[in-house]
From TrEMBL:
Protein's recorded name: Small ribosomal subunit protein bS20
Alphabetized PANTHER family for the sequence: 30S RIBOSOMAL PROTEIN S20, SMALL RIBOSOMAL SUBUNIT PROTEIN BS20C
Pfam families (UniProt xref): Ribosomal_S20p
Annotated stretches, region: Disordered: 1-27
Signal peptide, first to last residue: none
InterPro entries in the cross-refs: Ribosomal_bS20, Ribosomal_bS20_sf
Keywords, ordered alphabetically: Ribonucleoprotein, Ribosomal protein, RNA-binding, rRNA-binding
Length: 87
């Protein structure tokens, strides 16, 4: 346990920041899964609308540096490729 007041404060902040970042990361994973699920269902129009919403979520989380911008680009690219390959 931290003994210095500033170190105790940093520990408190780390707990809050970790909880916040974890919830954002969870939202990211949910967004990606929802697109994959829509693609698996086979409805291209629904999958496209879910993809657009998920792209927004991915970009916002990358802007907050929860994930790297290149990782966000990779997720979006792979989802777009999966969407494009739908019959």
């Amino acid at each position: 346990m931290a003994n210095i007041a500033s170190a105790r404060k940093r520990a408190r902040q780390d707990v809050q920041r970790n909880a916040h970042n974890s919830s954002l990361r969870s939202r990211l994973r949910t967004a990606i899964k929802s697109v994959r699920k829509a693609i698996a269902a086979g409805d291209k129009a629904a999958a496209t609308s879910v993809y657009v919403a998920s792209t927004s979520v991915i970009d916002r989380i990358a802007d907050k540096k929860i994930i790297h911008k290149n990782a966000a680009a990779r997720h979006k690219s792979r989802l777009a490729a999966a969407l494009k390959s739908m019959a």
